TrEMBL record:
Record bears the keyword Signal: yes
Segments of skewed composition (Basic and acidic residues): 88-101
Descriptive protein name: Cell wall hydrolase
Residue ranges, annotated region (Disordered): 56-104
Keyword Signal part of the UniProt annotation: yes
Species: Bacillus pumilus
MF annotations from Gene Ontology: hydrolase activity
Domain Cell wall hydrolase SleB: 121-219
Residues of the signal peptide: 1-19
UniProt keyword list: Hydrolase, Signal
Length: 220
């Protein structure tokens, strides 16, 4: 009987030992899993934190191009007035070149001599006004379309009748004609002028007066 009890005790001890080994193995496996779990959680937290720090950085960069675009727009606006000024200058040159081509040197010389004869003793503005009347007639449908044609039209200007058209023009008359022709700077839009003290034609006196310069009146 003692041998049987001893054998049973040994068997029970072996079974207990085997169970203890299984429990230790399970505890070891659980410990490994628990040890891994914080690492995984920590990595997840780091990824999340990186994600959050990336968002502000992206926002800051997103606003930078707007500042640059504003600066560029300001520079473009600042440069526009210069462009307009340049265009205006080019337009003035084109107008001057066109007028120089339209009227020959001979026509300008003839017009200068007429201004000298008609406006002798008058102011510089008075000389410009006489030259303006001739050019206004050239562009008017009721008169010849050339300077020579207007000046030599029958009974149009007294200096043609009395021969004073052939006298050499003074410097003020030449200068006044150049300014009116080349710069298109006309003093009046009138197509007639006369001296009211000596004019004998009642028809010319019936025209509407638009300017009075010196001894002359200018009419349309």
């Amino acid at each position: 009987m003692i041998k049987i009890h001893t054998a049973l005790f040994v068997i029970l001890m072996l079974v207990s030992a085997m169970k203890m080994d299984n429990i230790q193995e399970q505890e070891g496996t659980l410990s490994q899993k628990l040890a891994q779990a914080p690492v995984k959680h920590q990595l997840s937290y780091i990824d999340q934190d990186d994600h959050h720090t990336a968002i502000p950085a992206f926002s800051e960069e997103k606003h930078q191009p707007k500042v640059k675009m504003l600066s560029t727009a300001t520079e473009e606006k600042a440069s526009k007035p210069k462009q307009k000024k340049k265009v205006k200058s080019e337009t003035t040159k084109e107008t001057s070149s066109k007028n120089e081509t339209r009227y020959s040197n001979q026509e300008m010389d003839l017009l200068s001599r007429l201004v000298h004869a008609e406006a002798k003793g008058e102011s510089y503005a008075g000389k410009k006004a006489v030259a303006s009347v001739v050019l206004n007639r050239v562009e008017h449908g009721s008169f010849p379309d050339s300077v020579r044609g207007v000046i030599y039209q029958r009974n149009a200007f007294q200096p043609v009748s009395n021969g004073s058209i052939n006298d050499k023009a003074d410097q003020d008359s030449i200068k006044a004609v150049k300014q009116v022709v080349k710069e298109d700077d006309r003093t009046t839009k009138a197509i007639y002028f006369y001296n009211p003290k000596i004019a004998t034609d009642n028809w010319i006196r019936s025209r509407k007066i638009v300017e009075r310069i010196g001894r002359h009146v200018f009419a349309v």
